[in-house]
Amino acid sequence: ETETCPGSRACNPQTEECTDVRVGRLDVCEECVSDSQCGEDRQESDAHRCVPMFYPTNPETRFPNELAGYCLKVFSPGGCEQPYAIEISDRASLSDPQARSYCGINENLATCPAVRALEQLDPCPPDCPASGLCRDVGGLSETCTYPCESIAECLPNSPPGRPGSSCGPSGAGGDGGSYCGGVMP
Question: What is the pTM of this model?
Answer without folding.
Answer: 0.87
